[in-house]
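Exam revision sheet. Question 4 asks you to relate a sequence to its structure. Input first:
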Amino acid sequence: MGTFERVDPAAPADSDDPGQDDRPAARSAHAVSGVLLVAPFALLAMLVLSDWPPLRRLDLAITTQLHGYALDHPVWVRAMSFWTDLFAPMPLRAAALVLVIWLARDGARRLAVWATTTMVFGGLLGPLLKLLVGRRRPDLPDPVAQAPGLAFPSGHALNAMLAAGILLVVFVPRTRPRSATRVAVWLGALTIALVTGFSRVALGVHWSSDVLAGWLLGVAVVVATTTGFTVWSRRRSG
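Answer key, structure tokens:
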């Protein structure tokens, strides 16, 4: 119960494709899900580019409220700073590299390639979109933290969601349904993604819409690469 295991021990040794269901309907559902996730990200980017007043007011209200709390609670700032540094893009990429090496040594080479592709593709897409949108970070009086570069989408939120997606795809199939281990995998993945994104707004270095965009983009990348690798693997084996 407390250890990871393959649910179906009779499965072939190289049955390590991300996304186990290769039926056309399942592939179509994955593709539609990807489109549905890209659409809100694109809409959010358009609202940011047009400086839509309701979104601007919401971002400012959330940031102002959290910044006021941070100024009055230095322990909170230290906790958020520790978390945001621990789950920054570079540490997550290093952890992903360790996972990829483990997968390759465990015989799950296609899954290792998928995880690498997901992190690299998402990691390159984020900075490119930052340049295209060109949004500035919050400029707060008496800031509690500093961060370089542009704001939209949040790189921390994006990479944390990519890492969470990889954890789920790799480890959920290795746990038994309704087991404590599976619940722990889900809770761990969601905690990494959600708290990391929140920490960026709590520290005043991102607007809330930057973080939301990072989450949406991260999920869309995981769905896209999962679908792509599933289709590619089935065509090769067919």
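Marking note for examiners. The CA atoms of residues 158 and 217 lie 6 Å apart.
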